[in-house]
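Quiz preparation item.
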């Protein structure tokens, strides 16, 4: 597997300003910094923070139950949705070329909240369909790490209003995560759009 290199970036296919970070037999990763304009991004963050029923969850890790270090929510896209998601979903679907069925939301309250390196569970997703991630609020760093022995690592700042698209194949060959930070940072909300198969769990982030 080739090392990922964040520079130079190739022109992307998801609209003006998109950047292709990887595009080969191991999958496609593209990033668009200004997928929505700053005014919409700011209003969307405030509305989601206010209107979404955020929850904390306990998960089994290292032989004990721990609180997930962020707040969570999720929706099937065929159910009543907060206005921001209802407006955003068709635009994300058009950009990614996918008929998304579900969206998982994460609320990172400060620099202490995170998500460990992982890949999505492919048995829960429709084969061949991409994953699209929209970010609002504070900029947070995402680490995208190749699974091959010669490990390539991409450090990507996910800005407010940005869109990150990862193909189905990337989940086989890369892990991704949002690490804790050592310096203070404000809250961030992310929306992960997916096409789930009939057996896919609704509450997987």
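Solution:
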């Amino acid at each position: 597997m080739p090392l990922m290199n964040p520079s130079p970036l190739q022109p992307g296919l998801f609209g003006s300003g998109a950047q292709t970070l990887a595009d080969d037999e191991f999958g496609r990763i593209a990033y668009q910094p200004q997928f929505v304009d700053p005014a919409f991004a700011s209003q969307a963050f405030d509305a989601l923070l206010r209107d979404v029923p955020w929850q904390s969850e306990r998960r089994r890790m290292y032989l004990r139950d721990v609180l997930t270090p962020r707040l969570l929510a999720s929706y099937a896209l065929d159910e009543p949705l907060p206005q921001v998601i209802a407006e955003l979903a068709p635009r994300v679907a058009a950009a990614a070329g996918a008929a998304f069925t579900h969206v998982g939301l994460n609320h990172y309250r400060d620099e202490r909240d995170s998500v460990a390196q992982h890949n999505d569970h492919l048995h829960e997703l429709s084969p061949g369909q991409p994953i699209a991630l929209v970010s609002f609020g504070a900029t947070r760093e995402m680490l995208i790490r190749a699974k091959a022995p010669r490990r390539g690592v991409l450090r990507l700042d996910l800005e407010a209003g940005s869109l990150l698209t990862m193909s189905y194949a990337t989940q086989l060959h890369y892990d991704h995560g949002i690490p804790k930070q050592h310096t203070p940072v404000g809250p961030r909300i992310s929306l992960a759009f997916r096409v789930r198969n009939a057996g896919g769990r609704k509450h997987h982030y």
